[in-house]
Amino acid sequence: MAELLVGQVLRFAGDPMVEGPGAARHDARGAVLVAGGRIAAVGDPAALRAAHPRARVTDYGDALISAGFVDAHVHYPQTAIIASWGKRLIDWLNLYTFPEEMRFADPAYAAAVAERFFDLMLAQGTTTVCSYCTIHPESVDAFFTAAQARGLRALAGKTCMDRNAPEGLRDTAQSAHDDSARLLAKWHGVDRLSYVFTPRFSPTSSPEQLEALGALWAAHPDCLMQTHLSEQMDEIAWVRGLYPQARDYLDTYESFGLLGPNAVYGHAIHLEPRERDRLREAGAALVHCPTSNSFIGSGLFDMAGLVAEGQRVGLATDIGGGSSFSMLRTMAAAYEVAQLRGHALHPAQLWWLATQGAARALRLDDRIGNIAPGMEADLVVVDLASTPVIAQAAARAGDLWQALFPTIMMGDDRAIRAVWAGGRRLAG
Ligand code: GUN
Ligand code: ZN
After folding, report:
1. What does residue 236 show for φ and ψ, rounded to 5 degrees?
2. DSSP 3-state helix, strand, coil percentages of the chain (rounded to 5)?
3. Average pLDDT for residues 117-126, to the nearest whole number?
4. Which long-range contacts (CB under 8 A, 24 or more apart) does 87-95 make?
5. Signal sequence: where (predicted)?
6. 83: CA distance to ligand 1 center in Å?
7. Which of 145, 325, 347, 382 is a plausible cystine mate for 64, CB 3.0–4.6 Å?
């Protein structure tokens, strides 16, 4: 049955990072027609009702209908260790992350966390994530099984690491290659699921492992490859010691074939000019993880500079280095980081980064992250007056952006009125 969702509607006709807020389209009273899992039409509520009299109507009043949020970089196995105190990247990995990831050898534990993770994400209005798993193939099965059961578009891969990690959390160059190939064959393209090659980062992969994964990616160039790049200064110094022949951090990937248009690099904060040039030439994506960058003390992402030079940038929580599951909170953190760099991101830009921009970083912007006929019907309905303090701020607003910004800065799961994925109502 067709569904007609009525409310305020926000969508994008262009890229507001380049064109400014004029790239957004806002209907104060609009409607979205959903049929067969896709968006069939967008327009005037009365006209769409008249044209589709059998569609079931849900009127969300003043709430804002948007594309569901897209989180372009997360670690679902770190769900339980979010908000772990007091460490910077390398110690944080060793003290909190690796012991927790070890537990995913148990398929029952992996399944339980995957279920909890998707429930938490959907409660925040996030309908697509691109996740790291652990070295255990079972952790990938758990992730995709939970996503599939909810009808979500989801991306993930087995995290590959064969050194500088504890016993029990290391694979080998050969097993990483073979397990990744097997999981790709099992899950890639099944329903709405995509497999992503996932070497964790250069410090935990031997050159042999990076080479093996580079060869596998070359055989499947349509797949994404995700990893971490230049997150923290100590990490960069470590990479220099481990790969003395490399020109810079990016070169540890580039020299093994792990740079290309379908590469997705998390963090990318402390980049050298050569790295920026090569990233842009290759058409790779950079994913900004602002709550993580503050929480682990990594640094301030150069959003304005990277966008100005033509880099493809997305936004993400980086759970559990990130300190919130909410893309609203993540937009707020991106705003604050940009402010610290002397640049005010517009609400239209923040919203775009959390939807269409993140989808574009994952090369999915033709399917998700926007409201337009033919796009998959992954939607979030946002209450712009979800708490007394947000309501009083929004009541003073003169336009959509002033009404939306208090929710960006102060909103949480209470603002998420409804979530639709693949044309099905999952909540609200
Ligand atoms: N670098 C390598 N692994 C990780 C991780 O799990 N989280 C973050 N934030 N950075 C990393
Ligand atoms: Zn990460």
Report:
1. -65, -40
2. 45, 25, 35
3. 98
4. 87/296, 88/232, 88/234, 88/296, 88/297, 89/231, 89/232, 89/234, 89/235, 89/296, 89/298, 89/321, 90/232, 90/234, 90/235, 90/238, 92/296, 92/321
5. none
6. 14
7. 382
Confidence band, pLDDT 50/70/90 cuts, at residue 419: very high
Q: What are 373-416's pLDDT values in tens digits?
A: 999 999 999 999 999 999 999 999 999 999 999 999 999 999 99
Mean pLDDT of 338-347: 98
Tell me where in the chain the CATH 3.20.20.140 domain(s) lie. Answer: 69-325
The finding on whether 73 has its CB within 6 A of some atom of ligand 1 is no
CA of 78, closest atom in ligand 1 = 6
Probe residue for ligand 1, chosen from 87, 88, 93 as the CB with the greatest number of ligand atoms within 8 Å: 93
CATH dotted code for 3-67+369-427:
2.30.40.10
Closest residue by Cα to atom 3, ligand 1, is 200
H-helix or E-strand spanning residue 197 = strand 193-199
Q: Give this complex's ipTM.
A: 0.99
Q: Where does the chain hold its CATH 2.30.40.10 domain(s)?
A: 3-67+369-427
DSSP 200: -
Residue 291, ligand 1, Cβ within 6 A: no
Nearest ligand to the CA atom of 92 = 1
Stated length of the chain: 428
Output DSSP code: residue 376: B
Q: What are phi and psi of 285, to 5 degrees?
A: -105, 145
Query: Among 68, 65, 49, 47, which Cα is nearest to 57's?
Result: 49
Protein residue with least CA distance to atom 9, ligand 1: 321
Shortest-distance ligand to the CA of residue 129:
2
- d(CA 193, CA 367) in angstroms, rounded, equals 13
144 Cβ closer than 6 Å to some ligand 1 atom: no
Which CATH architecture fits 69-325?
Answer: Alpha-Beta Barrel (3.20)
For residue 273, report the distance from its CA to the centre of ligand 1, in Å.
Answer: 23
Residue 428 has pLDDT above 80, yes or no: no
Return the amino acid letter for 399.
D
Pocket test for ligand 1, best of 71, 73, 74, 75 (most atoms within 8 A of CB): 75
Helix ranges (H only) for 315-355 are: 327-340, 347-352
Residues 233 and 416: their CA atoms lie apart, in Å, by: 37
Q: How far apart are CA 151 and CA 424, in angstroms?
A: 8
